[in-house]
């Protein structure tokens, strides 16, 4: 049976097609265009699929279910409790499923305790081991950093531009803050983790990960780590059904 994982984030919807646990193809759509979301043509021509959806945008879950019903034999919405990683936090229900999937994938792929940096709409820096998901740190991502400054009365017409220090206008100064300040914040957080967990491997992922990779210290870059974790969960669930 074909397996499809759907990762729904605030900015993008990623559709992953799997052979077993191996991610074969990825299709990306803007979340804001959900009403125009189409099933990839390669899936329309195959047998019914086993579909798992991991969403941090619950308001569109019913629409997603309708979209994938046409090609799916089974559809599951994956929660943090389905990931097979104990949740060692105060409020497990409040943890984003994407964060737990990241950690599940990283722990399994690298057979180590891990610090996972996910640079997206928000930046999460989480720690996990075989003992479970232990929690993390959340700070604004690049786009939130920029738009939050744009709401102030004195700053208007912010444009993405080259980051040169010192910035020669407001847009350049803000771009410098994002380009160098955000990695600096992330590295400071990772430094504190490494003091406490020196054996942890630092894994970088997320939609902005490649752009910031030259400015951040890390062990491995895994752009689609959330989807890889989702593929692992779906594979385990499918094995239970056989």
The number of distinct structural domains comes to: 2
- Helix-and-strand structural type: alpha/beta
Across the major sheet, the strand order is: 3-2-1-4-5
Instruction: Tell me which CATH architecture of the largest domain applies here.
Output: 2-Layer Sandwich
Give the averaged pLDDT, no decimals.
88
Structure summary, number of beta strands: 10
Indicate the CATH class of the largest domain. Alpha Beta
| Weakly predicted, low-confidence segments | none
Strand content: 25-35%
Helix content: 25-40%
Task: Calculate Rg over CA atoms.
Answer: 19 Å
Q: N-to-C terminal Cα separation, in Å?
A: 11 Å
CATH fold-level name of the largest domain = Nucleotidyltransferase, domain 5
Number of helices: 7
Classified in CATH, the superfamily of the largest domain is ATPase, nucleotide binding domain
Shape label: globular
The largest sheet is:
5 strands, mixed
Name the helix and strand elements from N-terminus to C-terminus, one letter apiece. EEEHEHEHEEEHHEHEH
3D structure, described in words:
With 242 residues, the protein is an alpha/beta fold. It has two domains: 2-77, Nucleotidyltransferase, domain 5; 98-223, Nucleotidyltransferase, domain 5. Helix content is 35%, strand content 28%. The chain contains seven helices and ten strands. The protein has helices spanning 41-44, 61-69, 97-110, 142-150, 170-196, 209-212, 225-241; strands at residues 2-8, 12-19, 22-30, 49-55, 72-77, 114-119, 122-129, 132-140, 201-205, 220-221. β6 and β7 form a beta hairpin. α3 (97-110) crosses α7 (225-241).
């Amino acid at each position: 049976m074909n397996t499809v994982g759907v990762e729904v984030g605030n900015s993008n919807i990623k559709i992953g097609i799997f052979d077993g646990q191996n991610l074969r193809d990825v299709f990306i759509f803007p979340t804001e265009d959900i009403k125009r979301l189409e099933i990839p043509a390669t899936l329309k021509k195959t047998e019914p699929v086993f579909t798992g959806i991991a969403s941090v945008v619950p308001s569109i879950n019913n629409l997603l279910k309708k979209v994938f019903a046409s090609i799916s034999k089974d559809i599951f919405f994956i929660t943090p409790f389905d990931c097979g990683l104990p949740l060692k936090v105060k409020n497990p229900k409040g943890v984003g499923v994407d964060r737990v999937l990241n950690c599940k994938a990283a722990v399994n792929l690298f057979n180590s305790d891990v610090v996972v940096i996910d640079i997206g709409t928000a930046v999460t820096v989480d720690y996990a081991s075989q003992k479970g998901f232990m929690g993390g740190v959340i700070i604004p991502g690049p786009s939130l950093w920029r738009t939050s400054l744009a709401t102030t009365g004195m700053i208007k017409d912010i444009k993405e531009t080259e980051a040169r220090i010192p910035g020669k206008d407001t847009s350049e100064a803000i771009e410098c803050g994002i380009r160098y300040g955000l990695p600096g914040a992330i590295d400071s957080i990772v430094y504190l983790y490494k003091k406490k967990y020196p054996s942890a491997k630092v894994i970088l992922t997320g939609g902005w990960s490649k752009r910031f990779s030259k400015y951040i210290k890390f062990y491995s870059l895994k752009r689609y780590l959330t989807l890889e974790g989702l593929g692992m969960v779906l594979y385990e669930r499918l094995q239970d059904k056989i």
